[in-house]
Amino acid sequence: MTQKSSRAMTRTLRREADLRIGLSGYSPVALVEGEKWKTGESQFKHEFQGVCYLLSSAEELARFKASPEKFAPVLHGGDPVSLLNENIVQTGHIELGVTYHSRVYFFATQKSRDEFLSNPEKFATTQNLAFFNAETSGET
Fold first, then answer.
1. Would 139 be classed as within a structural domain?
2. Pairing relation of β-strands 103-107 and 93-100?
3. Phi, psi of 37 (to 5 degrees)
């Protein structure tokens, strides 16, 4: 997962009607298990902590339901650096993602991503916070 500087970046969360769609509609199972960006299907959706994830098959849906915390991005794609440093919830960008200890993290800025990479243990401790029942800043 690397930054694409020539294009606008894609937020990890998007809204559709009254739903928050995680990973902007990509399958978290395909990302974690195969490191592939595979578009999810609306018939294979599952809500986890207020965020709806789309999976690409019934098999992926079953795996996600059995262990959503394994597959959902840390903080549902929120930036752990801005949360820890500034106590601000910011939606990360798909292009600014990294994998650390088999978990996927996303960041709102390249600066946040770089700070995480310089000391990932410092920021990895925020991964278990469930805060998405409240509105988040930077969400579209």
1. no
2. antiparallel
3. -90, 100
Could you tell me the two tokens for 111? 């600066």
The beta-strand segments (E) located in 69-136 are 93-100, 103-107
Please state, in angstroms and rounded to a whole number, the distance separating the CA atoms of residues 10 and 12.
6
DSSP label at 9?
A: P
Q: How many CB atoms lie within 10 A of CB 133?
A: 7
Letter for the amino acid at 124? A
| Residue 31 belongs to some domain of the structure | yes
Same domain for 59 and 84, yes or no, is no
Average pLDDT over residues 9-29: 93
pLDDT at 122 over 60: yes
Q: 């960006």: which residue's tokens?
A: 37
**What's the pTM value of the predicted model, to 2 decimals?**
0.83
Question: Would you give the end-to-end CA distance of the chain in angstroms?
Answer: 22
* Domain extent at residue 33: 13-69
- pLDDT tens sequence across 29-69: 999 999 999 999 999 999 999 999 999 999 999 999 999 99
Rounded to the nearest 5 percent, the helix, strand and coil shares of the chain are 35, 30, 35
Number of domains in the chain: 2
